[in-house]
């Protein structure tokens, strides 16, 4: 039996010759679901969304942190498909730029879903990992960060540990300062 030489495009619904479809090994008939024309439009649209998001995220990040985060660092990060924390596949609209550590460079950011992002907020990574991640997830994330930073696992882990120490030291100092202020205010009243 001869193989059918035409196919219906899932987008525009026109039936077109097979040569009007790009190859896709994951499909049964070896061709993409959309015709070439529709596929190109679809890809351009997705790239546009990604670029817009990357531009916003770069602007936002540079306002709030010291560092050297480039537009391409962001676009590369937002092109990842799995949330770095929960591991779920994240649709493009729900991908957010996550600052794993307070720095603002390629080695301190990652992509996570909106719900993981709001759950982590500014919790130091190690604290978040102890509360919400399995050992396997934690090791995988540290490994990936190490790769981005061109460091060893130990170096990256030590830096994450220092971030946690810094966070709690600052918190402690703030609390002490508040206590001093309160005491001073109380003393003035007397
Ligand atoms: Zn089409
Ligand atoms: Zn997530």
Helix-strand blueprint:
Layout (H helix, E strand, L loop, with lengths): L5 E3 L6 E3 L18 H29 L6 H8 L16 E5 L9 E5 H7 L4 H8 L2 H15 L3 H37 L1
Walk me through what this model shows.
It contains six helices and four strands; from the N terminus they run E-E-H-H-E-E-H-H-H-H. A hairpin with a 6-residue loop joins strand 1 and strand 2 (15-17). Helices cover 55% and strands 8% of the residues. The chain has one domain (36-180). It is mainly alpha-helical. The termini are far apart. The protein is elongated and about 90 Å long. Helix 1 (36-64) packs across helix 2 (71-78) and helix 5 crosses helix 6 (153-189). Strands 1-2 form a two-stranded antiparallel sheet. Strands 3-4 form a two-stranded antiparallel sheet. Bound molecules: zinc ion (2 copies). One zinc ion (ZN) binds at residues 9, 11-12, 14, 34-35, 37-38. This is HNH endonuclease. InterPro entries: HNH_nuc.
């Amino acid at each position: 039996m001869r193989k059918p030489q035409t196919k219906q495009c899932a987008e525009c619904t026109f039936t077109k010759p097979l040569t009007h479809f790009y190859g896709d090994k994951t499909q049964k008939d070896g061709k993409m679901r959309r015709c070439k024309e529709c596929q190109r439009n679809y890809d351009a649209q997705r790239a546009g969304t990604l670029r817009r998001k990357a531009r916003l995220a770069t602007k936002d990040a540079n306002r709030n942190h010291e560092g050297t985060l480039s537009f391409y660092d962001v676009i590369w990060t937002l092109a990842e498909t799995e949330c770095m924390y929960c591991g779920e596949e994240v649709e493009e609209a729900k991908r957010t730029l996550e600052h794993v550590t307070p720095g603002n460079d390629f080695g301190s950011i990652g992509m996570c879903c909106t719900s993981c992002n709001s759950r982590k907020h500014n919790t130091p990574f190690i604290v978040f990992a102890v509360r919400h991640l399995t050992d396997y997830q934690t090791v995988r994330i540290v490994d990936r960060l190490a790769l981005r930073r061109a460091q060893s696992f130990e170096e990256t882990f030590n830096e994450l540990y220092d971030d946690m120490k810094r966070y709690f030291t600052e918190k402690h100092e703030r609390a002490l300062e508040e206590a001093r202020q309160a005491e001073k205010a109380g003393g003035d009243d007397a």
